[in-house]
Design a protein that fits this description.
- This protein is α+β, with helices and mostly antiparallel strands.
- The protein has one domain: Lipocalin (Beta Barrel).
- The chain is 16% helix and 54% strand.
- The chain has an eight-stranded antiparallel barrel with strand order 1-3-4-6-7-8-9-11.
- Strand 7 and strand 8 form a beta hairpin.
- It is globular and about 40 Å long.
Length: 149
C-alpha cells in the first residue's frame, strides 16, 4: 500500500510539474537587446540597445496574454522614461503556424510576426516589411532581438 501511495504521489508531482511548464518556447520574459538589419548579401548589421532601451521587456504568458514594458530616452528631460501607455495596453498573442505569431490588441489590430529562436535564450522578432534600400544596400529584413531573462 505504501508503494502504491508513493507511486501515486510521484505521478501526481510529475503531472503537475509538466502542466506548469510552458508548452511554447516563446513563453517567458524577454529583454530588448539589439536591432539587426540583414542585407541582401547576407551581412548582418547589429545595433545594440542603449542602457535605457535595454530596460524594455516583453512577457509572453502561457494564457495568450502579452505584457510590454517600454522605456525610452527623453532628450528633453535627458532621462530614461517608462512608457506607461504600453504597459497598460491589453495585448494578446497566438501561434498561427511554426515560427509565425499574431500579436494583436483592440487599439492596433493584429500583426503577424516571424519569430526565430537562434538558441533557447534568444528571440528574433521580425515584423512584416518589404525589402528596402539604405545607402545603396538592400535590407532584406529587420529583426528585433530579445534575450530571455
Amino acid at each position: 500500500m505504501k508503494k502504491l501511495l508513493l507511486l501515486f504521489t510521484a505521478f501526481l508531482f510529475i503531472s503537475c510539474s509538466s502542466e506548469e511548464s510552458p508548452s511554447n518556447k516563446i513563453v517567458g520574459t524577454w529583454s530588448f537587446h539589439s536591432i539587426i538589419d540583414m542585407t541582401s548579401t547576407g551581412d548582418k548589421e547589429e545595433n545594440l540597445a542603449n542602457d535605457c532601451a535595454a530596460k524594455s521587456t516583453i512577457t509572453f504568458h502561457g494564457n495568450g496574454k502579452l505584457v510590454e514594458s517600454d522605456y525610452y530616452y527623453s532628450y528633453n528631460s535627458m532621462e530614461c522614461i517608462f512608457n506607461e501607455d504600453t504597459f497598460n495596453r491589453e495585448i494578446k498573442w497566438e501561434e498561427i503556424e511554426e515560427g509565425k505569431y499574431r500579436i494583436f490588441s483592440e487599439r492596433f489590430g493584429g500583426t503577424v510576426y516571424e519569430m526565430r529562436f537562434p538558441d533557447k535564450n534568444t528571440l528574433w522578432m521580425i515584423p512584416p516589411r518589404e525589402a528596402y534600400e539604405r545607402d545603396g544596400v538592400t535590407i532584406e529584413y529587420t529583426a528585433y532581438v530579445y534575450k530571455r531573462i
